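Researcher: Batch entry, complex prediction.
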Amino acid sequence: MGSPAAVELSPGSFRDPAGHVIFHGDDVLRAVSKRRARTIPALLQSSFYRERAGSQIVATDVIDDPDLQDRAARPGGSPVALLLRHERIHPITYPYEWPFSLLKKAALLHLDLHLAALDGGFHLADGSAYNVQFRGCEPLFIDLLSFQDYVPGSYWFGYKQFCEQFLGPLLITAKRGVPHNDWYRGSLNGIDLRHVARVLPLTASLSPSVQLHILLQARLAARVQSHDSSASKASARKLPESGLRGLLRSLRKLVASLHVERGQGTYWREYDRRNSYDEEDRQAKRSIVARFSASYRPGTMLDLGCNSGEFAELALISGAGQAIGVDQDFGALEAAVSRADDKRLAFLPLYQDLTNPSSAAGWAERERPSIASRLRTDAVIALAVLHHLVISNNIPLREAVAWIVSLAPAGLIEFVPPEDPMVRQMLSRRDIEFPDYTEANFRVALSEVASIKAEETTSKSGRKVFWYEGQ
Amino acid sequence: MNVKCILVGCWILSIALSFSDPAYAYLDPGSASLVVQGIIAAIAGAAGVAAMYWAKTKQFLRSLFTFKTPDKSPKG
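Model: Structure tokens for the complex:
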């Protein structure tokens, strides 16, 4: 008999004293304190939970393992009274990686669950975007401990958190056209409402809902001078349930009304339609993607520079289990989410700048792990990406190739030659030369870290897609 | 319609409040959000009551202006 699997504490799960997440082998477990252990079984048996388990709320069961329960305690912390096992979600993603439409879906799920929870005698204690994860583009609420027994008259202590982590970021994107992602990544716990208030256009402040949820809250917060007993006086008054429901419905209506500018098509969103490939070239590229996916049937396929997700969709149809697409373009990501929704694809488009991917962040730089450490990818496709890394960002060719190969055991990389019209145009805008950017050097760089299995010319200009396996 | 009027009225009030001497100047930011919840709850409550009265008023007016059609069903 082997030694029991190690228990690993999730570094991001420390804020809630009622419990924490641990990893045990392939299982994701939640250790619950004595205080909450009494109420969780009632939640698990409620129709509110059972009707939504696995679809809107993470599927969960109780584990009866006293030894594991002892080992699940936080070092120096109180004993664990109850152990829950959650369905495992891969990948774990964060709100600063979600396109606008996914953040909006997560916000609506949060509000809908809160309203439904009230019907069942529960309420949501917090308003954290990190409590939502995605399977494809479908949101799932993952923190069972956020549901607590509703005490009539109580306030929603997560209201400010919800406004900072959902409403503010959605508003700056919808009303200002400033994607929330980079700002959010620098401000992990949400965007300060005083800052949101400063950047919203005057037209946004004409909305009574924006006035109340953002501007009034921001103004009151800005006038805080010190802690005082008056603070407790405010919370001593009761908040009627009808008032809480009104608040939630008002937020829901506001969130549902937010859209990104449809007419504001960005370059890459239009790329599929305007690019210079002819149909024959396109089919050649599609053919190698389909053969590659059918050959490996990767559980998780990563599509670097996914645009609107055409090749991710093809990979899924051809045998990939799920696809994760990363792109930096706001419009392309919105088009990709629409594609995933319309065709019900297991495809999750995420915002990433390939030259600056999500790094480890938060408390002790461990609270929010880097995206590379959260992804387990079986295959990667990098079509028309390499020349952007090398020519637009000056990443040395060998480093760029080695980095792409490091992401998965096998993949496809497209090499776009210097003679290609797109590369010629890029080079014409640069005052430096890229003499090393040649197909021969690319082959050397790829052969240093991988073995080339196949290659296919995909355009008359000499673009080639290389099929490789890492060493 | 009247619900909207009340909302707009409360909104104007909220702006006026926020420019006047702050009544909750000492509260911490979390408490500011509790105050906002209280205000929104009051608006939601007022809107709910107004909606109920408006529905009753509409029903009353409708009953005033609706002529009863004579009962033509055969008797006996």
